[in-house]
Amino acid sequence: MGSKVRRAVCRAFVVVLGLGTAGSGIARDHAERFGTGHWQVRLQRDAFTGALSCELRSTDHRMIYQPGALGFRQGHRDTLHAWYRFDGGPALRWQDRYAAVIAAGVSVEGTGLDNPTAGIVWLPAGDLTGISSVAIRSSVARRVRTFDVRGYPEMVDAARRRGCWQH
Question: Cα angle vertex 38, ends 32, 41, to 5°?
Fold first, then answer.
């Protein structure tokens, strides 16, 4: 079969597939995105169940929100021995906030015993009120990474007004 014929067959197959599902009565999920600054919220309504799922993250994917905490991605490194500081304040051990993160119902499950944190430092949402930046050193051998968290509380509020995290 020549390449022109192969392409025509592929196009016809795609058209048939599209027509085959168009009248099937299966509604598509509805997704909406909005954001400001370096934050983005993605809302998705499941057309079948009506359930709303929400994701708040930074546009560079380095920060992600779960109700009760904000996670700071450190690559694929174990972060059990991470230290952090708010706005240039004193350095604090992340392990000291671990219990508060768990108490908030945040899932911090990692990829296994060799990386139980999945490379994410989770900090309780309440600790981040009025904070502009968070500096984190995931281990003694790693460099300090600084995260700009300005606008994060406002985006959580905006997402809640649209129905997110209303359990």
Answer: 20
